[in-house]
Amino acid sequence: MEFDPGFAIHMEEETLTFSYGDGAFGPICEKRHLNDIRSSLADADADGPDVLYSIAMDVGMEKDREAIVQRNLLYGAVAYAKGRIGKEPVRSQGHIHAISPSCNASTCEVYEIWSGEAYIYMQQYGGDDAGNCYAVHAKAGDVVIVPPGWVHATVNANIHENMSFGAWCVRDYGFAYQEVREHNGIAFFPLADEAGNITWEMNPSYSQGNLTICEAKEYPQFGIEKGKPIYTQFQENPDKFLFVAHPEIKKKEWEELV
């Protein structure tokens, strides 16, 4: 990986899976296939890699497990295939975080890119008017925070390389797909030409939406330190990411974030 995740996890490029070193824990990866997301694509009949990405939810170091569980947090690792799905780069279908019973709210997600490049796409609403939409370009070492209640999807921004990332999320997570599926996907489809240049095309199932394309930024208001793995930051201060499981403690910051 181009950026050190901060604990003993390794991505297997050929199989899109993760292995764990001494003292680390993690599950066998779950694989997401092309047929799983066809209904959300610009072209539902498009060809592409069979396995789009693999997910290992609940990874970390054994010595940290109790502290993670106590705070109702969960760390996930994801590996994305290279290539295209028709004219789109490999991506997820998009969802909103469902209301978590533990906090009675939709929660945020804190991404950290480990290798390759990504677009973290997010849109304000799931209805006909998608509101403000953002495609945040992130490279290895960059952090991107998705606010609570926002539709979001992850895109491999470099069709020539695999991509991987880690993310903090709430432990009792759940996904709401209905609004996205009712609109045949996210409000703006990413399109990649053969050279890998990415443009964005509005999904005609939406009546309105305003897209801003931007680079990843820093988040001092959330106490995030640039260049230091977010897993290491948790080890140094286990309460730093309490806002992930309890979004209400950062109400002011969410209002000002956009």
Overall pLDDT: 96
Largest sheet: 6 strands, antiparallel
CATH superfamily: Jelly Rolls
CATH architecture: Sandwich
CATH topology: Jelly Rolls
Q: How would you classify the helix and strand content by structural class?
A: mainly beta
Structure, explained:
This is glucose-6-phosphate isomerase. It contains five helices and 20 strands. It is globular. It has a single domain (9-257), classed as Sandwich (Jelly Rolls). The two termini are 30 Å apart. 11% of the residues lie in helices and 39% in strands. The chain has 258 residues and is mainly beta.
Layout of helices and strands:
Elements: E1 9-12, E2 17-20, E3 24-25, E4 30-33, E5 51-57, E6 60-61, H1 65-70, E7 73-80, E8 84-85, E9 88-89, E10 96-97, E11 109-115, E12 117-123, E13 129-139, E14 143-146, E15 151-156, E16 163-170, E17 175-176, H2 178-182, E18 188-192, E19 198-202, E20 208-215, H3 230-236, H4 242-245, H5 251-257
Parallel strand pairs: 13-20
Antiparallel strand pairs: 1-2, 3-6, 4-5, 5-7, 7-16, 8-9, 10-17, 11-14, 11-16, 12-13, 12-15, 18-19
